[in-house]
């Protein structure tokens, strides 16, 4: 449901709606002053005869403009339940949204207000996070345990989000415990406004593909294994839209289609390809890219892309393939690209994809480049923001590590393994509750010594322009995600990072923005990020078992000014828990 008139819902919104109505109040104030001045400027008869129609017309124009100026609202009511599913042929308990696995895809447009009422009918607390949605000035809506109290069983909570100045391919999933291992996830697509030029030929239709790894075990069994100090077992298979094979997408010969592909796996990088078809990359996580053509493409945990595919091959069915990267054995899921009207089935063999070649993947990653002349959500070109010329205010080097603490497996960042306190960090910060966390409890460079358990928080000033280096000294690939922002993925390299890498490996011209970056084994990756969104933001391993066991931290982006220009107040429906209880 879409409502353009905000008066239908303004009572359910806190300071956000009030602030957005201020321009309308200014218009009314201006008109009233103008009318009052006319009382003094013109004789009564002249005023009645000449100015009153003008005033009424101007007032009508202002009212119409006010209504049209309000961005649309899209309402969703989601009931979260358990239900039996059998993705790999074994009946098991899944998490459903309105009875669906995977969950429904959210389709919206730049600047829309998205209101999602989540009714939790599970037997434990639950939250959903919105992967890549920036939540401008509203970390209250981020849906992670550092910003939100989880929704208790048999209750509901309503998210109020505006997809401000965003376009592209995103996703959502549960952020609590190991819930996302058994469902509750889906796609989140943001279309450009009609007045904004899209830098590629318009497709006749779009397809959303969600690739995930899968275990035949219950999510509570997986969680108990991690809680006991053991590593998660390897996944049992891969899925495309909840199925290991048979999902079909139908198109017509000669037509062009947009494939939105997201890697929603817990642990597994994938390679994606379509038999007999080239894929033209046009968008990466909300940024328009140069149009490179690929036969296959690597997507790491948490990443999303869009491809244009033209159906130019002989009319028949073709395999869509997602296979695991850097794993033994290689896992594979398939779907079907069906040419409308054909009865010819897809034929083997499946198109070949890379398996372990790390250098191949790194070389491919460097080919993904920002389209400098294209606009994104706004009409100005992406390249008008010359990120490579901005002075860096701070460099942070984050090294992930495996640790044993109190006899149990943990993962750490700069020797701190994050634990979520009973009081969310954002609530403790907002209500000035002492004893919950310490700013800069984790250092901005790797440190020696044993790893410790603590709430892990790094402090930054609002509008800092920060270089973050992810140093991976382990033999497994890593994937890192930052909430509340996107960033420029400027460099990849092997070995240990040092400052000379900037001149040797950094792309400071057309590196693309994104919200999730991979770090190859025994390697480093560098990003540049403008911390222009005040709040408490989760910087985490997208590899979910590692995140669950401590490989994450929170970036406190802060200034001392209390203003709705920089951050909205706590919403009226704020859930309170821990020391923040009333």
UniProtKB/TrEMBL annotation:
Plastocyanin-like domain mapped to chain residues: 80-193, 206-341, 423-562
Keyword terms of this UniProt record: Glycoprotein
GO terms assigned for molecular function: copper ion binding; oxidoreductase activity
SUPFAM superfamilies named among the record's database cross-references: Cupredoxins
Pfam families according to UniProt: Cu-oxidase, Cu-oxidase_2, Cu-oxidase_3
Recorded family membership: Belongs to the multicopper oxidase family.
Name of the protein described by the UniProt record: L-ascorbate oxidase
Lineage summary: Eukaryota, Viridiplantae, Streptophyta, Embryophyta, Tracheophyta
């Amino acid at each position: 449901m879409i409502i353009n008139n905000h008066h239908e819902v303004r009572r359910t919104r806190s300071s956000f709606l009030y602030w957005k109505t201020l321009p309308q109040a200014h218009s009314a104030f201006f008109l009233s002053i103008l009318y009052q001045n006319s009382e003094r400027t013109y004789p009564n008869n002249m005023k009645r005869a000449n100015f009153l129609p003008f005033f009424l017309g101007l007032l009508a124009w202002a009212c119409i403009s006010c209504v049209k100026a309000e961005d649309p609202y899209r309402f969703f009511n989601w009931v979260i339940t358990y239900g039996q599913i059998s993705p790999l042929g074994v009946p098991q308990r899944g998490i459903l949204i309105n009875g669906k696995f995977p969950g429904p895809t959210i389709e919206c447009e730049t600047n829309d207000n998205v209101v999602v009422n989540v009714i939790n009918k599970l037997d434990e607390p639950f939250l959903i996070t919105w992967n890549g949605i920036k939540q401008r000035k509203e970390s209250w809506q981020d849906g992670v345990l550092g910003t939100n109290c989880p929704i208790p069983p048999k209750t509901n909570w309503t998210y109020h989000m505006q997809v401000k100045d965003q376009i592209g391919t995103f996703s959502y999933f549960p952020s609590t415990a190991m819930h996302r291992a058994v469902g509750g996830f889906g796609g989140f697509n943001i279309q450009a406004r009609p007045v904004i030029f899209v830098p590629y030929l318009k497709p006749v239709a779009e397809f959303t593909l969600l690739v995930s790894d899968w275990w035949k075990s219950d999510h509570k069994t997986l969680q108990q294994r991690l809680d006991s100090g053991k590593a998660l077992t390897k996944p049992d298979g891969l899925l495309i839209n909840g199925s290991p094979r048979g999902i079909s997408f139908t198109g017509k010969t000669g037509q062009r289609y947009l494939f939105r592909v997201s890697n929603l796996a817990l642990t597994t990088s994938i390679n994606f390809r379509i038999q007999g078809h080239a894929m033209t990359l046009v968008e990466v996580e909300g940024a328009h890219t140069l149009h490179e053509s690929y036969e296959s493409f690597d997507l790491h945990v948490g990443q999303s892309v869009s491809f244009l595919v033209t159906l130019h091959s002989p009319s028949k069915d073709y395999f869509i393939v997602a296979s695991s990267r850097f794993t033994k054995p290689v896992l594979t899921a398939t779907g079907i690209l069906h040419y409308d009207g054909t009865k010819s089935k897809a034929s083997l063999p499946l198109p070949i994809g890379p398996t372990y070649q790390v250098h191949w993947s790194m070389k491919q990653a460097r080919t993904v480049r920002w389209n400098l002349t294209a606009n994104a959500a706004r009409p100005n070109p992406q390249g008008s923001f010359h990120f490579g010329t901005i002075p860096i205010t701070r460099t942070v080097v984050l090294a992930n590590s495996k640790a044993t603490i109190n006899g149990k497996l943990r993962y750490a960042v700069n020797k701190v393994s994050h634990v979520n306190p009973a009081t969310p960090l954002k609530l403790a910060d907002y209500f000035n509750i002492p004893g919950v966390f310490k700013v800069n409890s984790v250092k901005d460079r790797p440190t020696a010594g044993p790893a410790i358990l603590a709430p892990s928080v790094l402090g930054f000033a609002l509008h800092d322009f920060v270089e973050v280096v992810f140093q991976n000294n382990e033999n497994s690939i890593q994937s890192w995600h930052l909430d509340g922002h996107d960033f420029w993925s400027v460099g990849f390299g092997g070995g240990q990072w040092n400052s000379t890498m900037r001149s040797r490996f950094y792309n400071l011209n057309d590196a693309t923005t994104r919200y999730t970056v991979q770090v190859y084994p025994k390697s480093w990756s560098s990003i540049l990020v403008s911390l222009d969104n005040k709040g408490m933001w989760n910087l985490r391993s997208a590899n979910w078992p590692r995140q669950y066991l401590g490989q994450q931290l929170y970036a406190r982006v802060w200034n001392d000014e209390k203003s709705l220009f920089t951050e909205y107040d706590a919403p009226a429906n704020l859930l309170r828990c821990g020391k923040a209880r009333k």
